[in-house]
């Protein structure tokens, strides 16, 4: 049962979580008042068409019967790291030595995994590569003096992109028209962990916001 919070200027009860129709504004005794939606339900015809498309197409169904916090969000957070390496040492006579070292660093992760489908997912496929090469030469000039020459090279590649379907998404396909670049819009301000809804933004960071 809804909790009664008080009465309005017309004497009607103001119930907890009551939704008022903004199109029913009227002035009574110098104060603006509104009429609640019948059965506390906003008609579908009054809802935003873009938001309805996103909700009906990609948002997950509830996993329990709670009014809030009713989706159990489970997303695997896969991470892999590989660092194979090789080192060779070769003495040349009694005074010279060559050393060679190489390694290949590979890091792969599902960054920002959120268990949502593309294109609304904010998941990023993160791949980081780094190749390292070193060549060293040491020469024993005297019993107390070593001459050293070294050369090294490091090449890094940081690839951190959203999912392909998110990147290629056309906003106009869901009725969001305007000068928008490809990419699913960022969805934010949908709630928090207390009252329910998403506590973080979803979608791509540089795309238009809903």
Question: How would you describe what is shown here?
Answer:
The protein has 210 residues and is mainly beta. It folds into 2 domains: 4-75, no CATH class; 82-210, no CATH class. Helix content is 6%, strand content 37%. It contains 2 helices and 9 strands. Strands 5, 6, 7, 8 and 9 form a 5-stranded antiparallel β-sheet that branches.
Strand percentage: 35-45%
Order of helices and strands: EEEEHEEEEEH
Percent helix among the residues?
Answer: under 10%
Number of helices: 2
Termini, distance in Å?
33 Å
> Given the helix and strand composition, which structural class is it?
mainly beta
Q: Which spans of ≥5 residues are poorly predicted at pLDDT below 50?
A: 206-210
Instruction: Supply the number of structural domains.
Output: 2
| Rg on CA atoms, Å | 31 Å
Identify the overall geometry.
Answer: rod-shaped
Extended strand count: 9
**What value does the average pLDDT take?**
84
């Amino acid at each position: 049962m809804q909790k009664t919070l008080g009465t309005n200027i017309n004497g009607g009860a103001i119930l907890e979580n009551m939704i008022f129709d903004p199109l029913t504004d009227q002035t009574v005794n110098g104060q603006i008042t509104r009429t609640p939606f019948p059965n506390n339900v906003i008609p579908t015809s009054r809802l935003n068409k873009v938001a309805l498309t996103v909700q009906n197409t990609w948002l997950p169904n509830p996993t329990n019967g709670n009014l809030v916090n009713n989706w159990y969000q489970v997303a695997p957070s896969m991470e892999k790291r590989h660092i194979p390496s090789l080192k060779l040492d070769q003495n040349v006579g009694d005074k010279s030595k060559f050393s060679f070292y190489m390694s290949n660093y590979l890091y792969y992760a599902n960054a920002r995994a959120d268990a949502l489908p593309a294109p609304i997912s904010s998941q990023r496929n993160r791949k980081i590569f780094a190749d390292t090469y070193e060549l060293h030469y040491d020469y024993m000039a005297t019993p107390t003096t070593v001459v050293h020459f070294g050369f090294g090279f490091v090449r890094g590649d940081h690839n951190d992109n959203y999912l392909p379907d998110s990147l290629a998404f056309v906003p106009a396909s869901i009725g969001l028209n305007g000068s928008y670049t490809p990419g699913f819009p960022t969805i934010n301000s949908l709630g928090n962990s207390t009252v329910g809804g998403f506590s973080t933004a979803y979608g791509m960071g540089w795309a238009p916001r809903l």
